[in-house]
Design goal:
By secondary structure, the chain is of the alpha/beta class. The chain is built from ten helices and 20 strands. The model has no long low-confidence stretch (mean pLDDT 93).
Length: 394
């Protein structure tokens, strides 16, 4: 199929010269042909110089760049891209690690594959498309994935019902592209957990907090721990392995609490140190006492887009102020934001304001981000979405 051509307004190619992988609709002068959403298009300057090749989409981001070279996008292309991604994960020690079979294989723009996420859980790869173009190419990508990972995976589950633009009217259905095994227990640094790739959030687990959970384990000994917004309990069972005296897990979703209890039982059967509560976070924080000296605040994204930024920052201030108010002297707070539109500076200011409101002396021990298998493309700083602070509260 012949590629349609996108021509930019004069001067609008500068970001492409800096290898930024997005082309905004406002930068386009005209389009030759009528590309459907998800089609491959070639992008040219006003002077008709080739700049990039990418997936066309309707919206403010009009093209997601797959390559800055004029090349064929075929099975060989996907195989090469996935091989580069897999080699990176092997080189940083998260793939082919006998104690860890959970990692992100493809992280969108961070792996020069905008619109595509692939997480590996044991023998199952969960593939998620965030663009129509990646959805259209899903079978070719799955075929290349099978070749690159070989017998290390047996199943490929496609999970994009909630991530594709609803206006595209694709009617995507979640389901197995390959295999169909229902064994959903994976391992992260020696700890086991159930992954709900069928109905869970994201691809079924929050792989991006792996290294931060390892850090928490080092601080947990003899502490009383509150894991707020626990989802499936990741921080909770790391705290227990770290020697915590008591761990309470809280989430508004009763389904998440059920999974948390199952995961704790997988690793620490009949351990009386853990209890879990299905309750609204703010209500729990209001009614709890000052029994905790290690608190984790890992809320879902408060802001999905820039219009919600102001309210999101108010939410972070309120949440952290409550934790500062209640945490024991000498306590440690792990606090996070996973909202892409909230910058590190925004988040830090919100937490600083909360600390000032509480009147407590607070010191930063660590500044956290996403792990190395969620790389940030140096030409796409927007890819740095996870922000975290570890704070000592006098």
């Amino acid at each position: 199929m012949e590629c349609k051509s996108v021509f930019l307004k004069p001067g609008k190619e500068e970001s492409l010269k800096r290898f930024h992988p997005w082309i905004f609709s406002g930068a386009i002068h005209h389009i030759e042909g009528e590309p459907d959403e998800g089609d491959l298009v070639k992008v040219y300057t006003a002077e008709k110089e080739f700049m990039a090749l990418g997936h066309f989409q309707i919206g403010s981001i009009a093209v997601r760049v797959l390559s800055f070279q004029d090349e064929l996008v075929n099975e060989d292309f996907w195989r090469r891209k996935l091989t580069v991604a897999y080699d990176l994960r092997k080189s940083i020690g998260v793939a082919l690690n006998p104690l860890n079979n959970t990692f992100r294989l493809v992280h969108g723009e961070g792996d020069n594959l905008p619109g595509l996420v692939i997480d590996v859980y044991g023998k199952t790869a969960v593939m998620q498309a965030h663009s129509v173009g990646m959805h259209v190419c899903r079978m070719e990508i799955a075929e290349a994935l099978s070749e690159v990972l070989g017998d290390t995976i047996e199943n490929i589950y496609y999970k994009s019902e909630t991530t594709l633009p609803y206006k595209a009217d694709l009617g995507p259905e979640n389901g197995f592209i390959k295999g169909g095994c229902t064994d959903n227990v994976a391992m992260e640094y020696g700890l086991k957990f159930h992954v709900d790739w069928l109905k869970g959030q994201k691809t079924g687990f929050f792989v991006d907090q792996r290294e931060n959970r390892v850090l928490l384990e080092k601080y947990a000994e003899n502490r009383t721990v509150l894991n707020m917004f626990c989802y499936t309990g990741g921080f909770s069972f790391y705290a227990m392995r770290g020697g915590a005296k008591l761990v309470h897990s809280v989430d508004s979703s009763s389904k998440a609490i059920d999974l948390t209890n199952q995961n704790v039982e997988l690793n620490f059967p009949d351990d009386t140190r853990h209890a879990a509560y299905a309750e609204d976070a703010f209500k729990y924080l209001d009614r709890m006492g000052d029994q905790y000296d290690l608190i984790i605040l890992d809320p879902p994204a408060f802001a999905k887009h820039k219009d919600a930024l102001r309210n999101a920052l108010q939410g972070y201030r309120k949440l952290n102020a409550k934790a500062f108010e209640k945490i024991k002297p000498g306590g440690i707070l792990f606090t996070f934001s996973c909202s892409q539109v909230v910058t590190k500076e925004n988040f830090r200011t919100a937490v600083f304001t909360a600390a000032a409101m509480s009147g407590r002396n607070v010191r930063i021990l660590h500044q956290l981000t996403q792990p190395a298998d969620h790389p940030v493309n140096i030409y796409h700083p927007e890819g740095e979405y996870l922000k975290g602070l570890v704070l000592y509260v006098e």
